Amino acid sequence: MTLLKKWLATAIFSIFAQSVGAQERSQIDLASQYYLALYAGDHETVRSLAAPDMTFEDPSAPAEFGLPAKIDDLNTFLDFLRSSLPAGVEVEITNSFSSNDLVVLNVATQGIVPASYFGMGEGSVSYTVAGVSVLSFENGLVVRHTDYFDYPGLTESLRPVD
Questions:
Q1: CA distance linking residue 48 with residue 43, whole number of Å
Q2: Considering the entire predicted model, what is its pTM?
Q3: CATH of the domain at 90
Q4: Which residues pair with residue 148 across a beta bridge?
């Protein structure tokens, strides 16, 4: 009887572990899809993955970058991105993990933008920046998006493009 109990316990644990693993992968997949859609300007996909009353914050952003302290709804967030996110930004999710209702994405972005975007006059500049985005989920939707980016590293990375 003891062997049967051990077998049963192992089987139940295995099923539970597979279920939890699948749930975490699914949440990471949703977070990745949401994040990549933001940078691609695919607002329809973003709307399908985020709650209308989601919030956005970037407490790491220096005031001179002009980011609002907090944005309290999805439409305002998408309007902000539409007006401030430069075209041609490349984004890569370099690592991720999920814990309970949170997904943490390590990201790297790079691109070439008009120098005026950074208040640097004429021409174009290239940049790279690393960051972390923490996404909170409820009922399968993003309800909170908090960014922490390396703004000093971004500033140091700016290079004129010939």
A1: 9
A2: 0.80
A3: 3.10.450.50
A4: 132
